[in-house]
Write a structure and sequence with these properties.
Layout (H helix, E strand, L loop, with lengths): L6 E6 L2 H12 L2 E5 L5 E4 L10 E6 L12 E3 L6 H11 L2 E2 L11 E4 L5 E4 L8
Parallel strand pairs: 1-4, 5-8
Antiparallel strand pairs: 2-3, 3-4, 6-7, 7-8
Length: 126
């Protein structure tokens, strides 16, 4: 038997705003809010479905330095260039994490500066 990736918790200065931004990017909806201010978003199937949920946990001062992990995204209904334009229009910004410029992916940051990558290949929607 193996473990399964079910959710990812992300520290956030403004969980409501960052959850709303990622929900728009991923086509997710809000699944719940905790009394401590955490916001969980996910696909229609909810927690335990085919894709992991994201939980944005409130912190007053996120850990400094380079994050130890990041999200990789793939477009589902358009090519990489069109998805890049959509993400930039939503407020993503280009990020430099030391890439050469020859990569087949784009490195971006969400509104709180968390890096993520937009990969070239397109995936089927869930």
């Amino acid at each position: 038997m193996a473990a399964r990736f079910s959710e990812l918790v992300i520290d956030s200065r403004d969980p409501e705003a960052l959850a709303a931004w990622w929900a728009e990017v991923l086509g997710y909806g809000v699944l719940g809010r905790d009394e401590d201010g955490a916001v969980e978003i996910g696909p229609e199937a909810g927690f335990g479905g085919p894709a992991p949920t994201l939980v944005f946990a409130p912190v007053s001062d996120p850990s400094p330095g380079k994050p130890r992990l990041h999200l990789d995204l793939n477009a589902t209904d358009r090519d990489q260039d069109a998805e890049l334009r959509r993400l930039l229009d939503l407020g993503a910004t280009p990020a430099d994490v030391g890439q050469t410029g020859e990569e087949s992916w784009h490195v971006l940051a969400d509104p709180e500066g968390n890096p993520f990558c937009l990969l070239r290949s397109r995936l089927d929607p869930l």
